[in-house]
Amino acid sequence: MSQLTSEFASPVHSASDAIARPGQTAALEARFAYGGILNKELEDEWVWVFVDDCSGVWRYVGYALTSDEGRVTFNLAGTLPPGEYDVRMEVVGDATWVPIRLWVLPAGTHVSVFDVDATLTTSDTQELEEILLGHTPDAYPSAPDLTRAEAGRNEIVLYLTGRPEVLAGNTRGWLAGVGFADGAVHLASAAADILPTNSGVGDYKLRYLRALTGAGLKLDDAFGNATTDVYAYAGAGISVARTWIIGPNAGSGGTNGVTGSWAAVAAQIGAEAPVTQPW
After folding, report:
1. Which of 52, 64, 1, 82 is nearest to 27 (CA)?
2. Per the CB 3.0–4.6 Å rule, which of 8, 81, 166, 174 could disulfide with 35?
3. Could you read off the pLDDT tens digit of each residue along the chain, which spans 279 residues?
């Protein structure tokens, strides 16, 4: 087993949130590394897994070993009823940990999908400035209101981003700090998935959305900025009438075009009747 040293004392552990059906095994995945953006993977180390089952008490559910790429997959038995659960994967050797949110959602659950960069933030360069300069991204006017409007009508909010998973903590912190609605966060785990092409980020998003529809979830609304978003949303069966694209590609593919602010769309969504979730 490798030794944890101060050389890699700054953890950059990262993970996307997980979505599973009731009764279905939930695959909880995380990556463990140290040392910033250019980091060293944590190899062959034991990781404990804890779940808060809404009681406020962490329950130990098992352990797993990191791979030579610092990755862990833990298959959580499908015993949890529908709902939202906090998961903690903790390195046994130094007690550093990564949070994961587990959403147990039955077939028929209504979901609204949001891209992040240049959709909720004002440009794609915000991500680069965050990585290199520590800049806090600027949000489009009324972007938080839009997500809260969807949550207010009982939609499950999904943030599906092409950001690399190393930015998981930054992304969750920014969403919470600016006042976006609580929701599942899914990031790219492979370098090919962040390429700004249909065969890159487009196919990565499409695969994930099709996995959700294959599990019986209903993708009601979608929000993005890029032609890759249009490609993924349409491919997953989301109606163009319920797809909104902001920025230079507004209206692409017959979608609803948005310019400058999400205020009007937030008001429209907020005035709509709530959906009925199947639990």
Report:
1. 64
2. 8
3. 444 544 445 788 999 999 999 999 999 999 999 976 567 889 999 999 999 977 788 999 999 999 999 999 999 998 999 999 999 999 999 999 999 999 999 999 999 999 999 999 998 765 555 554 566 789 999 999 999 999 999 999 999 999 998 889 889 999 999 999 999 999 999 889 889 999 999 999 999 999 999 999 999 999 999 999 999 999 999 999 999 999 999 999 999 999 999 999 999 999 999 999 998
Residue from 143, 150, 154 nearest 179 by CA: 143
CA distances from 162 to 2, 9, 187, 193, 237 (A): 31, 27, 6, 7, 20
Token representation of residue 23: 């009764």
Q: Which helix (H) or strand (E) holds 91?
A: strand 83-91
Distance in angstroms (rounded) separating the CA atoms of residues 126 and 118: 8
